[in-house]
Amino acid sequence: MDTEKRAVVLACVTMQFECDRIIKVAKQIADDTDCELRVLSVLEPTHDYTEAAWQIEYLNMVAKQFGADMTILFDKNADCAAAGFAEDNNVTRIVTGLHDGGEESFLVGFNRLLPEMPLTMVTKDNMVYSMDVCKVCS
User: Which residues of 43-74 are buried (b: 16+ CB within 10 A; e: fewer)?
Assistant: First the structure.
């Protein structure tokens, strides 16, 4: 029996309805690469999640439609939490929204922690950009 974990494509979403586009692209990549799809959202700890409840439910429903589990972590440092999740869950590619350009953005922080993780970004108008690490042999 094969006990090796299946490779995972991880859709990293925020609590916005339009993040369903990220899950859809991640599903396509997972299917194309024979990987499992997982969905992750990292929320900043608070006492009231009322505002996010509908978005959480909607994105969870989209994840389920594509056969994926959705995990929600509560952490002030989304990049650290996502990087730890990726390391613990055999993630081979992350799929996110477009990098906002700020030095403190999720993607900049995530890339500092896992610089060799392949990345796919999906714009709001569904343009897809993928980056892979190129290793130069000497």
Answer: beeeeeeeebeebbeebbebbeebebebebee
Per-residue H/E/C for 11-28: EECCCCHHHHHHHHHHHH
Q: What is the per-residue pLDDT across 110-135, written as a single tens digit (0 to 9) for each? A: 999 999 999 999 999 999 999 887 76
Amino acid at 123: T
Separation between Cα atoms, residue 70 and residue 13, nearest integer Å: 10
Nearest residue to 21 (alpha-carbon basis) of 118, 29, 51, 114 = 29
Q: Quote the Cα angle for 123-91-24, to 5°.
A: 35
Residue holding tokens 């029996």?
1
pLDDT tens digits along 71-90: 999 999 999 999 999 999 99
Q: What does the block give as tokens for 112?
A: 């500092």
**Beta carbons of 52 and 43 less than 8 angstroms apart:** yes
Rounded distance between C-alpha atoms, residue 63 and residue 40, angstroms: 10
